[in-house]
Design a protein that fits this description.
10% strand, alpha/beta, DNA repair, Rossmann fold, binds adenosine-5'-triphosphate, 5 strands, 179 residues, 5-stranded parallel β-sheet, EC 5.6.2.3
Amino acid sequence: MCVPGPGGTGKSRLIDAISCYFVETQRKEKLRKLGPTAVSASLIGGHMIHSFLAYLRSTKHQKKTVKPDSSTAEKDWKYVEYLIIDEIFIVGLRLLARLNELLTLGKRAPPEVPFGGINIILFDDYIQYMPVLDKPLYANLERRSSTCLPTEADVQYGVGHSLVLQINTAIKLTQPNEN
Ligand SMILES: Nc1ncnc2c1ncn2[C@@H]1O[C@H](COP(=O)(O)OP(=O)(O)OP(=O)(O)O)[C@@H](O)[C@H]1O
């Protein structure tokens, strides 16, 4: 699901309301909130996406991505059933694909199940700033020549793109609120 809406239409307020609902219904551990930056994460009382991706990260000296630590991922995501991601315009296709990889691992889900079966709610408009060193979620992927082998980045772009195409609900907030 995605919840787009310009500034002032109540996205943060809605995230607060959803958080309160999970607390009131004693299911706090089932909801996780992530932001792509420290500021976005702290504004919604959540964590940075990258803090969970640390053990999927490859370094200059390790050409291949480090083998993910499945026991840590399973512990991290054991109870989570709903995931809110704010400021989605900073999240690119590769980052979404890596998050998908992490959740698939954490939930021990088959690869065809998006985000390991966790319900994802993406907040904010896609089209604002461009994500850094990544392609925006609305990017149209160019077809590569069939003689050219896809790079790891190409594969991740493709996975991210197919995840975006699986978003089945959009609730657009349009009414600005003034206090
Ligand atoms: N349902 C509501 N009833 C009353 N006030 C509201 C409601 N929703 C939002 N507001 C108020 O409107 C203002 C803007 O809301 P909010 O910060 O949630 O918007 P936003 O879409 O997250 O904006 P931004 O993208 O700029 O952060 C806030 O002062 C908030 O308290």
